Amino acid sequence: MERQLIHKLIKPYIKPSRGRAAWQIINTVIPYFGFIVLMYYMLNWGVHPVFVFLTAILPAMLMVRIFIFFHDCTHGSFLKSKRWMSFWGHLFGVLTFTPYNKWKREHIAHHRTVGNIDKRGIGDVWTMTVSEYNAAPFLTRLAYRLYRHPFVLFVIGPIYLFVVHERLPIGLKDKKDWFSVIFTNVMLAAIIVAVSLTVGFRYYLLIQIPIIFFASSMGVWMFFVQHQYDDVYWEHDPQWDIIDAAMEGSSVYKLPAILDWATGYIGYHNLHHINAKIPNYRLKKAFRSHPFFQEGKIITLWKSFRLALLMLYEEQERKLISYRQYRRLNLRKTT
User: Residue 68: CA atoms inside 13 Å, Cβ hemisphere, count?
Assistant: First the structure.
């Protein structure tokens, strides 16, 4: 389909709504703090910490949804006013432990290079080709295998990324980057001090750490599934096409209704990459508006779990493969 026709079909959905955005803030941020209060009382009432830990899954889902609002602000799609999007974006960034301007710059770079095999490395999951892996030193291959291990990628890595890495002044480019990192860190420190002086630091740890643990794992998993699947699109720069990268290199993640809502409908990721100006609250309707948008790579929740084992991109077969498939491939070449 021609780009002009695609953009014509999408145009009606590129309309930020102050009312829709306000309602999303009300139905998400207020319940998020409500669950935090509930967890506090559960601890006070002597409920076993394990049950409090499991209760954290609910506010964690809301934190993921808040992150989508943050994400929309970085694309300039959540509200009409740039000033108000910057205001809310920085606040959402504090709630999700993410500096606004720094993440915005890196994420926009991701949109400009997704599926471009020659421009990997900014705002994406580290992905090596089979030939690169074969040519890499032992320590690089070891580091890569550890990085791509599901336990590291979805359990250890996410909480390190949001709690530690995003606090550090790494890869900052300008004053806006510096401001967003300093602002986020100062606000988080102020919250920790305020909570510690009122209800106690122990409560902060027992409530906030489980929430960020579950939320960060969910968020990284969502991002992984959106761009890491068997027949994903990867192309060298001269042949790279932004529409092909969106339709073939960004999945449609079919989730149950409650998860669809909690993830801000970002599962309709092919459409998001066609035009990031579509607000999250219009993505689902836009996706259903034309059969072309429904031609993307559809991944169901149950079938998505096997994607965690994918590790390397085989350029000749144009597909991501697991380490087991890689070993079989090497075995065939040596026999």
Answer: 33
Taking the C-alpha atoms of residue 28 and residue 91, their distance in angstroms, rounded to an integer, is 14
Alpha-carbon distances, residue 8 vs 1, 295, 310 (angstroms): 11, 18, 36
- DSSP conformation letters of 253-313: EE--HHHHHHTTTTTBHHHHHH-TTS-HHHHHHHHHT-GGGGGS-EEEHHHHGGGGGEEEE
Say if residues 250 and 227 touch (Cβ distance below 8 Å). yes
DSSP strands (E only) in the chain: 128-129, 252-254, 298-300, 310-314, 319-322
CA distance 71 to 12: 21
Sequential pLDDT tens for the chain (335 residues): 678 888 899 999 999 999 999 999 999 999 999 999 999 999 999 999 899 999 999 999 999 999 999 999 999 999 999 999 999 999 999 999 999 999 999 999 999 999 999 998 888 899 999 999 999 999 999 999 999 999 999 999 999 999 999 999 988 989 999 999 999 999 999 999 999 999 999 999 999 999 999 999 999 999 999 999 999 999 999 999 999 999 999 999 999 999 999 999 999 999 999 999 999 999 999 999 999 998 889 999 999 999 999 999 999 889 999 999 999 887 777 66
